[in-house]
């Protein structure tokens, strides 16, 4: 009889976790580095699922642009080059501008209070020098605006784009002085949405992503 530390074939066949989501989260979180090999047997052991489930997940993540398969070498985390990161941000600029405008049309009084609470938390994080906390709040704010917008198709597009760009977003957050710049841009987005001004919200969102693109262009290629 297997111990609690052992994984039986029956356990693996049950696929107790969403392995695609689990590997995706690990990549986005930085647990797997760019160009790191993703070995099916190792992932099967780590997540307690069958190798078939891992294989299917890696194919799905390849389609999402997070994983690449190298002939005769298996799968690895795809390293997104800088020029592609800029292209991704340009697409985000259009889609997130739409979401900000829609959020301004739909936002409730309760959601206004929530967004302003995030704004205040971001100010505190920057004032206290908590860069990682600010980065987390940044991600949460963008996600909440998308949710408020009600744009489900845009949400799926942006989820994939942001996941592919996570390494560059993290590098950007560490640039000296960048959080202060970003803070003012996010504040403008929040204020426009809370004022229920769709055109102003879209302009603010596009201005923020333009700033991101300009910052990325300053990175060494």
TrEMBL record:
Spans through the membrane: none
Any Pfam family matching the protein: GntR
InterPro entries the UniProt entry points to: GntR_C, TF_FadR/GntR_C, Tscrpt_reg_HTH_GntR, WH-like_DNA-bd_sf, WH_DNA-bd_sf
Gene3D superfamilies documented for this protein: GntR ligand-binding domain-like (1.20.120.530), Winged helix-like DNA-binding domain superfamily/Winged helix DNA-binding domain (1.10.10.10)
Entry keyword Nucleotide-binding: no
Signal peptide positions on this chain: none
Keywords, alphabetical: DNA-binding, Transcription, Transcription regulation
Domain HTH gntR-type: 13-80
Claim: Cytoplasm is one of the keywords in the record: no
Gene Ontology MF annotations: DNA binding; DNA-binding transcription factor activity
Protein name, UniProt field: GntR family transcriptional regulator
